[in-house]
Amino acid sequence: MARSSSGVFVAALTAAALAGVGFLAFQAEAAPDKPRASQASPSGKAEDKGKDGAPGGDAGQGGGSRKDEGGEKAAPPVPAGSGTGQRVVYALGQKRVWLVGADGKATHSFEVAPSAVNPQPGPYKVTSRDATGTGSDGKAIEHVVRFHKDAAGVVFGFSAAVDGSLPDPASGKKTGAVRESPADGRAMWDFAVNGTKVFVVA
Fold this sequence. Notes:
Layout: H1 2-30, E1 87-91, E2 96-100, E3 106-111, E4 113-114, E5 122-125, E6 128-134, E7 140-149, E8 155-161, E9 176-180, H2 182-191, E10 197-201
Parallel strand pairs: 1-10, 8-9
Antiparallel strand pairs: 1-2, 2-3, 4-9, 5-10, 6-7, 7-8
């Protein structure tokens, strides 16, 4: 009799253990996937992906500058007192260029990196262009658009380094290169043909 009781007891324990294992397996199956590690962006920072999988997430979640509908940061307006008609506007203080159409509206705007010497504010015009060349820093450059040469012989113009590098204003060389990204250099090249007005503001 005692033997029969212990057999029933062992059978009950075994059934309880199997039920517990089954319950745990069910919970593991129903649980959500574990969080995955963020992928590193080219900058080395983790990417914050939005609902569509694109970096950045929703604009409404805060923490960043307000963007326009295209997802790009809206450019400042074309500076007042920067001439009229189709022209290139270059703001020294903002280190920014606007390509302005005949209707007075900017078709493209971008930041630039000036060299050690700046042109005086005022009106100029595109005097010469070269598809490729060598910058005063020895870098291979493209889409060179020149608009002024001062009394000291400093030549001012827009260009893009083929390798994407920027000028060093602290190098001690008195140069007037205004560097753009390769994509912005192409936009400038397509827009600013010889004789196009260039207006420099402070």
